[in-house]
Predict the 3D structure of the following.
Amino acid sequence: MSKYIYLLLVAFFWSCQNSKDNEISFNRDVRPILNNKCLRCHGGVKASGEFSLLFEEDAFGPTQSGASAIVRGNHSKSELYKRIVHEDPELRMPFDAPPLTQKEIDVLVEWIDQGAKWEKHWAYIPPKRDIEPPMIDSLSWAKNKIDQFVYAKMRKKELSPSPEADKATLLRRLYLDLIGMPPTHEDVENFMGNSATDAYEKEVDKLLASPHFGERWATMWMDLARYADSKGYEKDSNREIWKFRDYVINAFNEDMPFDQFSIEQLAGDLLPNPTEQQLIATAFHRNTLANDEGGTDNEEFRVAAVVERVATTYEVWQGTTMSCVQCHSHPYDPFRHEEFYQSMAFFNNARDNDSYFEEPKLFTYSDQNKKEVESLLAYIDDELLPEDTAPKASYLHREKEAVLTRLGYRVHEAESYYESSPFIELDESLSMLWQVQDSSWVKYDKIDLENITEIGFFASATIGYAGDISIHLDSLKGKKIGGVKITKTKELKKGDDKRNNTREFKAAIDAVGGTHDIYLRFFKGERYDGHLFYLDKMRFYEDEPRMDSYNPAFKQKLKKLAEIPTTSTPIIEELPEAEARKTYLFDRGSWLSLGNEVTRSIPNIYDIPEAEEPKDRLAFAKWMMSDKNPLAARVAVNRFWEQLFGFGLVESMEEFGTQGEKPTHPELLDWMAVRFETTHDWHVKPFLRELVLSATYRQSSDANVEKIEKDARNQWLSRGFRTRLSAEQIRDQVLTVSGLLNPLIGGPSVNNSSVDGGWTGVPDWAVKGDSAKYRRSLYTLWKRVTPPNEMLTFDSPDRSVCTSRRIRTNTPLQALNLLNDETFFEASNALAKQMLQADIDPEKQLMFGYNKVMGRTISDKKLLLLKELYQDALSHFKEEKAEGNFPEAASEKFGDEKNNLAALAIVANTLLNLDEFIVKG
Amino acid sequence: MDILNEAHFRQSEYNTRRHFLKKCVTGMGAVTLGSVMGGADLFAKSLLPSGGGAGMPHFVPKAKHVIYLHMAGAPSQLELFDYKPELQKMNGQSCPPSLLEGKRFAFIRGVPQMLGPQSNFKQYGESRTWVSDYLPRFSEVADEVTFLKSVHTDEFNHAPAQFLMQTGSPRTGRPSLGGWVTYGLGSPNENLPGFVVLLSAGGPTGGKRLWGSGFLPTVHQGVQCQSTGTPVQNLKNPKGVDSKMRKKSVDIINKINELEYQEAQDPEILTRISQYEMAFKMQTSVPKVMNIDSEPDYIQEMYGVTPGKNSFANNCLLARRLVENGVRFVQLYDDGWDMHGAGPGGGVGDGLKRKCKQIDKPISALLMDLKQRGMLEDTLVVWGGEFGRTPMMEARTGKNFLGRDHHNEAFTMWMTGGGIKRGHTHGETDEIGYSAISGKVHVHDIQATILNQLGLDHERLTYRFQGRDFRLTDVHGNVIKDILA
């Protein structure tokens, strides 16, 4: 009941305010009416009667009747007015819906009479650069300027701040927020014992400098980058792209400015002399899905990927839903249909084309291999005859390729084909051809055949006469220049690696010279089979190669150099002008019905003078991160805010447009955006530092009835957020408090108990075995068709598309996961052992356990309950005889120790299931 | 402004938390919060009725439950239901060029030969429906169903077509049909998931995301249950924890959480308490309902089940048990229907015949069983693949095994129960079964019809994501009125 009175009061104040202030604001008063009642028919999808209220020029331009619907300054002459008050329901607007309320009509009348001033939606107006924090009536509460904004708003809502959270709770919150893991026992002890005034600040600085900082913030970025270790769609083939994750971790750890971080990901390839890292950064947009199914058209899925890149770019940096505009003008926001394609034109010229092998790729070496390659190259360099030297290539792998090619040691990987017949597939690590069947074929693009006399095929076969390879020039039915019969290499036993079963089959070829496309056609030998043979690589033999002028030791080094394994990362590479793609509008969003050609351009709403229109993707990225763009900084600070406070100041983090939520604290949002961009010069660490040092952040999350009644969702920030931890935070925390965590940072994805390899299995390059088991969740191998279960259970997206926020749910499956999951119970066992060792007194063991898990001392009431459970469990296990009925922690133990450990495992499992453990507190 | 904000707040609250409490929880079973809500009556009002979202169902439903039998890989309509004697006459002839112009197939290249039906057809029942001798038992219940002979789809590859069929979009990331239904209607049983998925003969190529919740809250995800081993992931206690110990520990967890609630006053804790109660209940209720051993012998015999193993027959019987216990939506996938003729057992001859044998008895048993129990009245049963097969032969590895390629222009599905006509056929294909000549329906029409039978208007069942309202049927779909009883 009280709620309704409150509502009435609010309504009353609202109307008072209005009558005092007669100036109608378009954004505040008019736009909501238009959005809710008019735009469905007079917006971007439909413009009934040729009248649309989306763009100013359309709203005041001529309609179907020739006249304008709105006459500024005169409502009675405005058709808009006549139609909303029309007596005939057939003519009255909104059509086929209840009429506008008198109040709504009054607002529109007043607005027209005042001159019908049009305003852009707030998000398209750049933030003011001179916002001053409001003066507040509290001298003691605020710790920095953020608090002044928050406090002022709080007072307006008749709320007051909560006291600071207790030290232990605050420390745990800070750790989980900044590095994604809880403090260790020692961290807690040190902090609790430090009474210096800057103790908290010191902790903040320590965490900002921790190498785990980068892991925690990379976790956030993975959802935006839709990072996965597979390509999606039906096949869901593996994709080696983990170097991109390392790049993100390092960028956050090094506090790379966010504008640079953004530009490198969007256009690192176009920077002058890009470094390997800048090329790896462009893998951001190679996380798009790719389709390896039979019968699919590569162009269709290339286009799908480019369209997705446009939508993702706008969501990540602009908080704008662009996918509507793919098919028609935006129904509610000022984006015209063609503007989607003008933006797409920036992204449409990337070389990748949905091919199986995912070229272009950057090949890099592990640190250890890198040293070896460098030393081999140095050796070769020293030995080279003057006529064999050439200028150095820019990247190590390219230099290696150049040297080997020059000397005539040429190897071509079988999987790097350009096109193929159906059925041809690659193995799980994409390193060999398989499903070679009768009449199937592959095509290699532009192979240099000058001087080549022989091609060696490294194949593996288990059929006596497995099949034939025939080599054709320039087309499938082109001239046959050679062929070879493939026979059994070795019988494979179960578990044998087919790659260790290859043998070279040499085919002499006709002398042709020049560069050609070559086609390999495969034919059955003694019988049909789904897999006639596997093909690993080809070696091209020249007549009198340059390497023959050197001694055998030198040639040995070449062989070694050729065989050092690499890591590949798909990257974005711009096509040169001669091969540039044109971009057309797609009629109704279909790539098969092309409209007019479009040129690169930024949507009009951003007011870019024509002369300043970006020319390429790099210029586009630079514009995004410039002060001419009203959105990127706002969207970014909103994301960081959400990670700490549970909700963004704009709750709809993906949508800042008219259909999104309004900011709860618009001035604070703008002030922070400008500050992030200027004062902090886009550095994330000092910005986060400011957030966590604020009094707003440090508040206790305990609520009371009054606070809940006034502000159930804590929009006005009068208390801390009791947010449930993310899937990653929960698992990482379990691993940390149980002591199981393997804290190794970076590297390939890992195969742990929650990984399901699906159809295409776990790739070779994934880390396996014990060292993979307890790494942080960020590294769990992520297959798109079979994503890790506990991640989805705790609300993670499946990483098919960019996702700005996770909707937190609370389900029984989460309870089952925490209670019974294999890794989680292993953690219970590990924790039980530590509890036993901590003290001989069972009560102290329980206290130790709670302390380890929660980073604070247990209350008496809770301890009493734990004791009850422990006693119950102890008597249960005392009765128990069968070894199989004891938790793992107690196996191979005897007598009291066995029973104690078993009971402690039950208690540990309970501790890891407490609500307070899986929320931030 | 505050009024707008308040309204908006209510909207978003409805969409997230309140929505969750009210519907999503009922997706997994109801909340048992009545006694513990205490001071937080802000949310209490909407908690108790375990119906669906505001205003849903939109109208009086004919069906309360759905059993959807998806034959993954796409069975051949030409060997099962769409009898084409003309095609038999053309057997072995080259395909007329008019059928190939401008067409793209998954695997057929060049000019293929026509392939006549490999099975024999007879007419059955009062409806005189043609059914293949591959399905001897089903032919006896053919009078129970409505056949849709002219279904068409946009996709010709398995995964995209499965996604289109089950989520309304060929790309991944959308909620599945079952998820939309629990989102709309909630679930009547508080101890069981509202949307259960059962697999046999492997899994569909589209993978788990076929029953994912997409952008809907994750409670609307289908819960995959197995008839072997642990029925639901993490349902089984770990080694060293028996159900007595589990009960005690859940009891202590909840008591400590109650203490926590007294301090923090966060209503989310109360939800968590109820979820632990439900998790514990599920540990007994799910294995119980999944235990087909408890069925009488004659029922087991009727379905042809093999307890302890994974089979389609087991899943059919489980489907009945789940629906009987109040599960809203049961989705079965049976894999292995992709008969390209790639090898022995992979053709539309013996291969398809063997697959049919696996489903023939269970499906007819399911229909009879539901009918005898009076459950067919309010249970909608849907059968179909993700597309059909070509009238042309696909000769993948020579002509040793006769196969058919993927075909999306016309294929057969059937429905029954839940207000659907019996003994009826909707739509007709041309004389070789290549394309529809009447009664053409799209996948979105099937979806609109399923929702319609559940009392849901497919145009009004929406969810806001990434700034726009999404529907299962996107901007398409019409209810197939002709098949409604």
Observations:
- The longest strand of chain A covers residues 515-524.
- Residues 298-318 of chain A form the longest helix (21 residues).
- The CA atoms of residues 134 and 221 of chain A lie 33 Å apart.
- Residues 10-20 of chain A have pLDDT under 50 and may be disordered.
